[in-house]
Amino acid sequence: MSNFINFNAQTERLSLRCVEDQDAEIIASLMVPEIARWLASWEVPFTVEMAQKRIIRSRREAEAGSALPLAIIERETDRFVGWVSLYRYRDNPYRGMLGYWIGIPAQRLGYLSEIKFAILQAGFDLFGFDSIEAGAQLANEASFGVMTSWGMKPFEERMAYSSARDRQERCKYYQITREEFRLSQENS
């Protein structure tokens, strides 16, 4: 398996790199109830210690080649603005799961749209995924907008366990296949 700890990508305004210990404080400050309510495994209050543990675990997964946990950094300010991750399904190594969040101060600036090519390309090239999916609670219209803008299409609804709230929640899932991504690149 590949080691993704040194992954780095740049867009016009952003830099993507593996999350680091130095990110813990800003992650804890950005993980507010308005963000965490939409995330299955991010609790509030989210402390610096919790962020440190998540970073350590995420970096181990990156070293093992099972995840790509990336800090989204504004290039001009070097400010951490969000987190995007790709995970390999344990029971299907050719299927990936996408997760993301942007802190409130950086929302509605088009950052998730800006990184879509770099993230999807990494999933299909680095991981060798045949498809990548993302899911959200049924009321999370903003997330469905992101998924649609990334070329993903709805494919199912199912219950998903939220460890942050210790309950099952109905979620809608979108996906994009390797072939759909290839065709979208040819047509752009």
Quick gist of this model?
32% of the residues lie in helices and 32% in strands. The protein is of the alpha+beta class and 188 residues long. The protein has one domain (8-186): Aminopeptidase (3-Layer(aba) Sandwich), CATH 3.40.630.30.
Descriptive overview:
The chain has 188 residues and is an alpha+beta fold. The protein has one domain (8-186): Aminopeptidase. Helix content is 32%, strand content 32%. It has six helices and eight strands, in the order ββαααβββαβαββα. The protein has helices at 24-30, 33-36, 48-64, 111-125, 141-149, 178-186; strands at residues 8-10, 14-18, 67-74, 80-88, 95-102, 131-137, 153-162, 167-177. An eight-stranded mixed beta sheet has the order 1-2-3-4-5-6-8-7, sandwiched between helices. A hairpin with a 3-residue loop joins β1 and β2 (14-18). The longest helix is centred in the first third of the chain and has 17 residues, at 48-64. It is globular and about 40 Å long.
